[in-house]
TrEMBL record:
GO terms for biological process: box C/D snoRNP assembly; maturation of LSU-rRNA from tricistronic rRNA transcript (SSU-rRNA, 5.8S rRNA, LSU-rRNA); snoRNA localization. Keywords: Isopeptide bond, Metal-binding, Phosphoprotein, Ribosome biogenesis, Ubl conjugation, Zinc, Zinc-finger. This is Box C/D snoRNA protein 1. Belongs to the BCD1 family.
Amino acid sequence: CETCSKEEAKYRCPRCMKYSCSLLCVKKHKLALSCNGVRDKTAFISVNEFTDLNLLSDYRFLEDVGRTADAAARHCIVHSPATKRLLYCLRNKARGCNIELKTLPVGFTKRRENSTTFNSMENKFYWHLKLIFPHCHAEYTLKGVPDNKTLADILKPYIDPVESDPVVCQRLKIYTAAPQSDVRILMKIENRSRNSIRYNELDASRSLLDNLKGKVIIEYPTLFVVLKTLKNDMVVLGQDGSEPAENSDSESSSLSSVEEGEIRDSS
């Protein structure tokens, strides 16, 4: 037993492959390793170790995905006139602001998360917004962000040395210690191939609405906060939409691991 090291092991965890001798040790190992005990159906298996059982498991996994997608497509919310009318209104209002807002089918993570609304009385968007700080591997979700709020004000509770929360400030200390002039706010350009990921740099002094104009948004904006002095592996297009020179600074090369994780999650 890999938990108590006293008794002979009788069980093996399907998730982490740890050996246990009893129910008590099983519970202890789950608590110590934060293991849920559920087999990871998408875990990598090399070709040399791939067996007929793995093939059968993959086949059943695809069948489960197909059933789940079919059930989501049949859900009453998908065909609800009120839901369709709300999404149409949201896209139409965004188009009026020169923003191409695209929505995903029900069942996608970003569709479930999105809480963006439009207030007709104020003629204002209240955006669902995600902030990603790649240098600290931190991610924060904001709800109900008014479109007339500047990006600088949105970031103050996170990277401002005075106004930020002490816990958040400690986690993002790389950002809070850096001069404000080093902070760059990037947003991924949608509708590009996976091997050609590019970003636009936003103006922190302008409002969220002004920064989103002329851009394509899938469900809600995701902003990446990076520092000029640190390598971030993101290719930023120029103001005229041109590709950066190949021998530019070390900030530009490919897609960051944080963004790669987000793409896998959203798909």
